[in-house]
Amino acid sequence: MRDTSPRPLPSPHRSPGLRRRGFLAATGAASLGALTLAGCGGTGTGSGDDAGKGGGSPKRGGRLRAAFAGGGAGETLDPHLANLFVDVARAKALFDKLADHGADLSAQPRLAERWESNRTLDRWQVTLRRATFHDGRPVTAEDVLYSYRRIADPKRAFRAKASLEPIDLDASRATGERAVEFVLKRPTAEFPNILAAFGAYIVPGNATGFDRKPIGSGPFRFVSFTPGRSAVFGRYDDYWEGAPHLDEIEFVVANEESARVNALLGGQIEYAHELNPATARAHEGKGQVEIVRLRGSTMQAFCMKTDRPPFDDERVRQAFFLIADREELVDGALSGAGEVGNDLFGKGYEYYADGLPQRGQDLERARALLKRAGAEKLKVALDTSAVAAGFTEAASIFRDQARKAGVTVEVRMGSKDSYWSDVLDRGTLCCYRSGAMPIEAHISQRLLTDSSTNATKWRHKDFDALYRQAQSTRDRAERAAVHERMQRRLYGEGGFLVWGFADWIIATARTVRGVDTKAPANTLDWARFDRVWLT
Amino acid sequence: MSGLRSFVARRLLLGLLQTAAVVLLVFALTEALPGDAAVALAGDQPDPARVEAIREAMRLDRPAWERLTDWAAGLPHGDFGTSLVSGRPVGRYIADGFGPTLLLAALTVVLLVPAGFGLGMLAARHEGRFVDRVISSATLAVYAVPEFALGVLLVTVLSLRLGWLPPTAVGYGTDLLAHPAALVLPVLVLLSRPVCSLARMVRAGMIDALASPYVAQARRYGVSGARVRYTHALPNALAPAAQQIARTVDWLLCGVVVVEALYVIPGLGTVLLGAVAERDVPVVQGLTVVFGVLTVVLNLGADLVAHRLAPRAGVAA
User: Fold this and answer.
1) Which helix (H) or strand (E) is A335 found in, with range?
2) Chain A interface, best mutation among B29, B30, B41, B44, by max A CB count within 10 A
3) For chain B: N or C, fewer Cβ within 10 A?
4) Cβ of B167 under 8 Å from any chain A Cβ?
């Protein structure tokens, strides 16, 4: 988050005791933070700066121990229940998805070798590559349909269920051993994003009970698992993409950040997930460990409810855009571990509108806008909580910035445990954060009239129509143009004041090579241990 | 002896009632927390339909009293219910977490008793002199350091700087005995404060006793100094010490959350913390019962010891 820690960290708010586990953010973010991480080097050749670092060519053998914040004794290896970062890291070692997100959040083929749609984008033929499960059985179209139907089971509440919603699973069928025809309820140009959805793993047909001896088609096979403590997986020699370099990977759980760092420094582990910026600074360049910063992983924002006063007046929203001093927020709330945002989600991702001018603080214009809106002595309550790193700091920094524009912001602390569901419908202004996901998914989950987590209450028929238009546009360039129109609209008068993107920080022992430094969390190359090796 | 037996029976009955009251209270408080397991699990994707589905899958949509009754009905059969989050039996959570915590507690007590009594008696014997002043001020100083700070300090110096001991028990699971070096720091941290309070208590008890008329009388009879100290004065200091030790054991067994987190020891404290964060009510309830019963039994034991050692003190209930 646990999950949920964003940190960029993780943790700013850590009391001397323990930090709550981090939920992952799936496409969202984790409960704790968001994040990103990098996995390992692209396609495995270890080229470029990722694997570089004096790496040389991959070496086979060894056991890598990786420490994550975990979910305690309630953890499970059921990949469809993955909710925490550690769940996803383990699921990705044991299982595969049909596709996964690249560093720019575009869908990359995985178990699906290729996909093609009909002209109207509502029927997709997916061809599977030749791959086998750990027990030697081939991965077939029936396994794919079984997995998707399990996720979509109306009696269960798997996280990927909402993502698979556009698929009509009753009408979809296997057209060959390795060919599936997906029938969709409506045209969906970004259908491959669905195949890459968080938690949409392929399990063998009729698989149940994943804690005893889970069978997947991933790069590692099950060896042992004790919930909340340790999971050991061994190399799967017949992995379709080539066997991993490591003999074994062990996931250990250490919820306390200082414990992860100490274990790394003491040589007890080789990979520590999720560090806070202060720790990273203390060890960066000291030669004991490698610090990896995955830039721009977590969107950090204030969320204005556009359907109620005072934010139902777009001039007030624009004034708020101009009140924020983004550099100060990044420095103060993220301890400098991040970069400024431009009121749009997905900096650096596919379809991101990077041509729009960077917005900065302009108190005079903000005051003028407020005056025109008749909101000169405005008072607003800003909801925040220690639920994610930097939230409470961001709230108090923004309160001081707003004061300079004559706006009184009252910071209201909410419960950590129910914050996200509390702020979904209540209040008018709140701290918000999201992990990496395709821009299209961000829009469909949060910005359409019928979106299930529409925290800004952005409901515009014409905007919905633009989204549908993008989804039924076959040509990629035309689709990008529609995406840009949507983003211009959000930039001009949306409800998300996106002030920054936080780094996700991991540390590795100096013997570890092949850790990707660019992939945001939840993307293909994040926490991807089959491409890592030990020197 | 029948007086003693009815004392024990009364205490046990009282203890059971206290345990039941604690469980009810915990249940009520957990219910009163904002959110529930479904909301906690949904995290930052609080899609209302999904939260509702999770709630239904976990059977949280049933009234609270029904869930409480179901759970209580299983207790007589030793059935603590099943976890909301994982569906695994709560008994297994407790059994798994108990080993490491018990090991830590046992080691700590084994060292605590000689160390605490030794230091306390040494200080009492040299009352007011250099040794006493060193012991008294050192114990006060160490007592004042929070466990978390001491733990971090010890790791930094002994593990990271000097490299003598492993900084955590990460990856060792429950098999801590196979890695004794990993136990040194946690036990040191756990010992630090109880040793100080015990030593100070023993010192005070001994000094009082040595100044008492009956010791003076014994001395007048020519009883040797050592005998006076060990057979006449010490028992007097033992009674409060026994109760202090019982409280310490209780504290240790109930999961020393900070130490377990810092050194990554998967004991009861860790289990409890995770269960609270996830609103896994059956697990929290199961742990509460175990903690409640432990507290009752330990304190009963301590009172019996005190009763036996210093009947004059009139330890009743």
Assistant:
1) none
2) B44
3) N
4) yes
Neighbour tally for B26: CB within 10 Å: 18
A417·B33 Cβ contact <8 A: yes
Contact B53 A4 (CB under 8 A): no
Beta bridge partners of A249: A64, A233
Which amino acid makes up residue A54?
A: G
Pairwise CA distance, residues A286 & A279, whole Å:
12
Which of A18, A163, A444 to probe by mutation at the B interface, max B CB count within 10 Å? A18
Q: CB of B12 within 8 Å of any CB in chain A?
A: no
Output the pLDDT for position A97: 97
Check CB contact of B170 with chain A, cutoff 8 Å.
Answer: yes
**Model confidence over A82-121: pLDDT tens digits?**
888 899 999 999 999 999 999 999 999 999 999 999 999 9
- The nearest alpha carbon in chain A to B171 belongs to A252
Taking residue A287's Cβ as centre, other Cβ atoms within 10 Å add up to 8
Nearest CA to B207 among B176, B179, B175, B229? Answer: B229
pTM of the predicted model as reported, rounded to 2 decimal places: 0.85
A71, B159: Cβ pair inside 8 Å?
no
- Contact yes or no for A180/A174 (Cβ under 8 A): yes
Q: Which of B102, B257, B267 is nearest to B172 (CA)?
A: B267
What does B269-286 look like in DSSP terms, one character per residue?
A: HHHHHHHHHTT-HHHHHH
Task: Encode pLDDT of B90-125 as tens digits.
Answer: 988 888 888 888 899 999 999 999 999 999 989 988
DSSP letter string, A457-498? ----HHHHHHHHHHHT---HHHHHHHHHHHHHHHHHH-SEEE
Nearest chain A residue to B150, by CA = A16
Q: Give the gyration radius of chain B's Cα atoms.
A: 24
B 280-299 residues with CB < 8 A to A: 280, 283
State mean pLDDT over A308-327: 96
Give the HSE-up count for residue A423: Cα atoms under 13 Å, Cβ half-sphere. Answer: 29
Contacts of B53 in chain A (CB under 8 A): 156-157
Read off the amino acid at residue A79: P
Nearest CA distance, A17 vs chain B (angstrom): 6
Question: Within A348-389, where are the H helices?
Answer: 363-372
Q: Are A516 and A40 in contact (CB under 8 A)?
A: yes
CB-based contact B266 A229, cutoff 8 Å: yes
Whether A224 has its CB under 8 Å from any CB of chain B: the answer is no
| CB spacing of B45 vs A28 below 8 angstroms | yes
Q: Which of A420, A336, A348, A386 is nearest to A101 (CA)?
A: A348
Per the CB < 8 A criterion, the answer to whether B269 and B190 are in contact is no
* A161-165, A368-372, B208-212: which is most confident: A368-372
pLDDT above 80 for A152: yes
Q: Is B253 exposed, middle or buried (0-12, 13-18, 19+ CB in 10 A)?
A: buried
Q: Is B250 on the interface with A (CB under 8 A)?
A: no
Interface contact B91, partner A, CB < 8 A: no
Please state, as a whole number, how many other Cβ atoms lie within 10 Å of the Cβ of residue A127: 16
Question: What is residue A348's three-state secondary structure?
Answer: coil
pLDDT value at residue B18: 85
Pair A460, A449: CB distance under 8 Å: yes
Per-window interface: A 362-381 vs B, CB < 8 A: none
Instruction: Say if A252 is an interface residue toward chain B (CB within 8 Å).
Output: yes
Whole-number Cα distances in Å, A338 to A291, A303, A491, A531, B53: 15, 19, 20, 27, 36
Model ipTM value: 0.83
